[in-house]
Input
Amino acid sequence: MSDARAHQLQLLREMILIRRFEEKCAELYSQTKIRGFMHLYIGEEAVGVGVMQALRPEDAVVSTYREHGHALARGMSGGSIMAEMFGKVEGCSRGRGGSMHLFDAKTRFYGGNAIVGGGLPIAIGLALADKMRGESRVTCCIFGDGAMAEGEFHESMNLAALWKLPVLFVCENNRYAMGTRLDYSHSVTDLTRKAASYDIAAASVDGMDVLAVEAAAQAACEHVRSGKGAYFLECQTYRFRAHSMYDPELYREKAEVEEWKKRDPIPALMQKIEGLTEEKIAEIETQVAEEVEAAIAFAEAGTLEPVGELTRFVYSDRRPA
Amino acid sequence: MSDARAHQLQLLREMILIRRFEEKCAELYSQTKIRGFMHLYIGEEAVGVGVMQALRPEDAVVSTYREHGHALARGMSGGSIMAEMFGKVEGCSRGRGGSMHLFDAKTRFYGGNAIVGGGLPIAIGLALADKMRGESRVTCCIFGDGAMAEGEFHESMNLAALWKLPVLFVCENNRYAMGTRLDYSHSVTDLTRKAASYDIAAASVDGMDVLAVEAAAQAACEHVRSGKGAYFLECQTYRFRAHSMYDPELYREKAEVEEWKKRDPIPALMQKIEGLTEEKIAEIETQVAEEVEAAIAFAEAGTLEPVGELTRFVYSDRRPA
Amino acid sequence: MTFREAIREAMRKAMQADQRVFLMGEDVGRYGGCFAVSKGLLAEFGPERIRDTPLSESTFVGAGIGAALGGMRPIVEIMTSNFSLLALDQIMNNAATLLHMSGGQFNVPVVIRMATGGGRQLAAQHSHSLEGWYGHIPGIKVLAPATVDDAHGMLLAALQDPDPVLIFENALLYNMEGELGADAGQVNIDRAVIRRPGRDVTIVSYAAGLWKCLDAAKQLAERGVEAEVIDLRSLRPLDDATLMESVTRTHRALVVDEGWRSGGISAEVSARIMEQAFYELDGPVARLCGAEVPMPYSAHMERASLPQVEDIVAAVEGMRVRHG
Amino acid sequence: MTFREAIREAMRKAMQADQRVFLMGEDVGRYGGCFAVSKGLLAEFGPERIRDTPLSESTFVGAGIGAALGGMRPIVEIMTSNFSLLALDQIMNNAATLLHMSGGQFNVPVVIRMATGGGRQLAAQHSHSLEGWYGHIPGIKVLAPATVDDAHGMLLAALQDPDPVLIFENALLYNMEGELGADAGQVNIDRAVIRRPGRDVTIVSYAAGLWKCLDAAKQLAERGVEAEVIDLRSLRPLDDATLMESVTRTHRALVVDEGWRSGGISAEVSARIMEQAFYELDGPVARLCGAEVPMPYSAHMERASLPQVEDIVAAVEGMRVRHG
Ligand SMILES: Cc1ncc(C[n+]2csc(CCOP(=O)(O)OP(=O)(O)O)c2C)c(N)n1
Ligand SMILES: Cc1ncc(C[n+]2csc(CCOP(=O)(O)OP(=O)(O)O)c2C)c(N)n1
Ligand SMILES: [Mg+2]
Ligand SMILES: [Mg+2]
Output
């Protein structure tokens, strides 16, 4: 098997993992195992999986509340994510964050941020730290089309450009901010034009094509690592599900959703993988199903954080030496 | 005397009034008659005077803390402004605002806003009110180059464009935000490019040439009044004085200031006015000096707001019917 | 009628009666409102008056202030009180100051509504009860309805107010059912209200916390302690008279607030009782507040972060209130 | 050495000792700092470590948080506390929550300094004392130095702290002269300090207000009233022990705060004394605070808005403190 094909199979596996994982999440939400706000990534898997390929272990990720896919693709364990959503202390945030606040120091996954736009300045700071210390790491900051209307987007883009910071801005343009269609959010809907107004290099890519996203992200990371400053990557995508579990989807036509589903990134990739057999797919599905079940089992078996720890970590346990 | 020439003389008179008024302000500041933060407009008079020509009485102005010139050019009385800076109840804000917070309902002068960028959303709202009621009024929002880095600039431009609001954005690009030079504030220093990224019509004009500013502002207002939406006018100018009365001006070279002083808008206009005699100039200077003296006398004669009124207007005196 | 419907009904009435009234905020229109409060209003009033805004809290709140200056009567909706921090500059530096610093020239009749509070497992960026904290700011009024009647009538009153009014809607109350009289109109927003009379101890609360206090009062009554329960309703200004009158009768007080304790509204209520009714007190005013933590997601930890009925009962018992 | 120089000296020492420390904010470099605190540091440390930022409070504060997460020890300067409202989302929703909501994984060792306070005729958008209000927020520490020693030592201590620390510098103090020992280092930031011992009444204050209290205490002493004056120093956390120990001796307390009264730090101090020392009190804890108004510009009105020495004296006398 060629390396390229093996890699494609790996991408497929990662996308299917996210898909199945989240389908289960939806079920578990109905069963009230998961609570709070939960935002599914289904339909957008190619973006997270494609982008993460371009990152190295030492890079950092700053994500949103729609981050299960990013976390999985970044290599966080499904168990720690599921346990988090179950509110168990074995969760990646000790059960304190839930679906919107996945954190992981090991993979430098800085959340799980639920204030739209609020992660951008954090990413600026992480990149600034790297730049000041001469590290050639990338900070990958992911946000939605809606976030780009917030003032912090403007301020952060300007600062990244002004200080030539090693940030990869990834906009997941899924055409809606909750129920607000792109053209009700932005007077200019070609989002790369916004990047241009800061002299930040930019590209737009088909976010339903994982290979295209990966290639674009690789090129973007190369730009950033070579010291040329920030890069803005728009990934045109679509969410197949509701905004969150509470959304009656009054704002879009079923037909539009169906149209986009035809571009589902998973079958799209399947068609591109040479000689992909039904058996191979079934094998992946089986592995993934096992992994998801294992994650759920891990979460079920998890324990609750002792109530006595409620105030722990409001401040650090101790001051460092 | 031709109408055009009479008008030019009027512009000259207004600019000289601002200049002399503020020179006195500086003196009065040294004498501690005026206190707090005070920001002089000297060098930038052509912008305020030129822009205000294009406004009608029913239009609105939202300005900054560097607004003496705007207020005078808008037709507010020098006495009410000076009394304000003296902290007298006869001042345009009852002595409560001082130099940074001139207000005047009669001329629809909505401050005197001292949070950089904070006036932009207010202007959006005023324009929205007009648009919703079908008024064909313009809201003129004035701010500096530094303000354009704030998030509210981005949000406000987007909203103005999205909702086609009748706002005239006037950027006084005097090349510095306090001590921060334009290219330390913005990754892209051609500020009209920012307007373009919202599809807002824009122009840049020589802010040292009052006739050019006036013409540009007229064209801009025509655009806005004709229902085409917002307009962004950059006026390239320079402040001859320090940022405020506390500024040691460490951040710029004397030579740069001198270079710009050669473009002083007042002599520049004088040279353009046909057959302008020394006598005419002296006449204007005398009139202006009298007006400034009268303003000071008014302020000196003013009284202090009774301390018992301190909490008055925290809330309205009464609820309306 | 639910609390949610009562707010919607008030908006509808206000928009029918006054062309100057309109609603603006994220997803108030096409989405139907993030908590469905404005559902249906777009169809009735159209997109000019039910305005979806881009994500830009500072500017659409500021635009509300500007529109109010321009003669409109905007209702601005912020999805959740945590997000209102993005607009706090506009609220404190503009809305709250303009009338005073313009020497009385420019009043700002804007109404800003937002959801608030914990109890829905939304964690540390969607759950805080910041309403008491907003009560610190002179120049604004801060309302916190607990009943269907108040949800409706306070909004109508706020729209008649010449000054900026913030209304905090505890999201746990949206589904609460209640009666709304056919002739229901605006309510008095100056006064606190005694929701349950009692002679032994005064329990002071508001919004969602009020209902826990009323439950606790029932349990206490079974044990022979008659608690008077006061609903503050307005967190700024506070109605001192009602509070002091009650404490003068009961000689004991407990303040229950889901917000953080330090420097919260509970501190202010306690300090005022100290100042105005010290010699009436038989013991110190007690406070039962939200734990001073970013709100955790997990159900048991969130529950532990908020005052519960049993905590209220225990707190009153801990005060050694003399029985009957 | 002035208060201003002491802060500068602390920044200099910290930057010399630790490569991770840097300063970032509007006009901290080329301009020399809006209040000249950082004057000269650009020449010494260069523009990489003395970073002028564009006007964008939310993002440069957030960048400070991010840089702290990334292993640096940033000092972020906000020109004036009123402007900090633009960054409050980053402060409350990010800096204050990250450690807790990440389950202890990510601490945020950022120091945020800002000027605060009235008394300079800067009017309603530059004069408020918001430090007490910030004390409401769990997850941050809030310091308010009153002395040259504390201006210097608190900053050094804050830079050693693993959690976000906000330091409010009352701008009236910048020119104050004081001694700084050659060996001066970081100071304890956990404790309040008795700045003047006395047996008759406890006056609690901090920062600029402290000096007025000390003046008032002198005048009171001439009239036979020995006031104990406590400098809170840290507004979050509060040092209850020092407060209660004092009140237990004096049986009377007055809190003096230049910030707004309702829901300010004065309310919290009063409420805590109520809770922890009620039975020690001979009379109610009194508060003397800034008037609840947007700060007016004119000198006489601004003066009337702030507690003055004579007001403090009068307040203590109004408490009928028993002499001797
Ligand atoms: C500051 C802020 N305002 C509003 C919200 C509520 N909200 C959550 S997600 C969302 C839409 C964001 O849209 P977009 O950035 O396009 O991301 P998407 O959800 O489409 O992935 C909104 C309005 C929030 N979390 N934070
Ligand atoms: C939000 C905010 N941040 C900082 C300041 C302090 N400040 C006052 S004016 C100014 C510079 C503004 O520059 P610019 O917008 O170019 O206007 P100019 O003063 O040059 O006319 C700064 C930093 C402020 N008033 N408000
Ligand atoms: Mg989107
Ligand atoms: Mg400028």
About this structure: The beta strands of chain B are 60-64, 109-113, 139-144, 167-173, 176-177, 180-181, 201-206, 231-236. Chain B has twelve helices and eight strands. The first helix of chain B runs from residue 3 to 30.
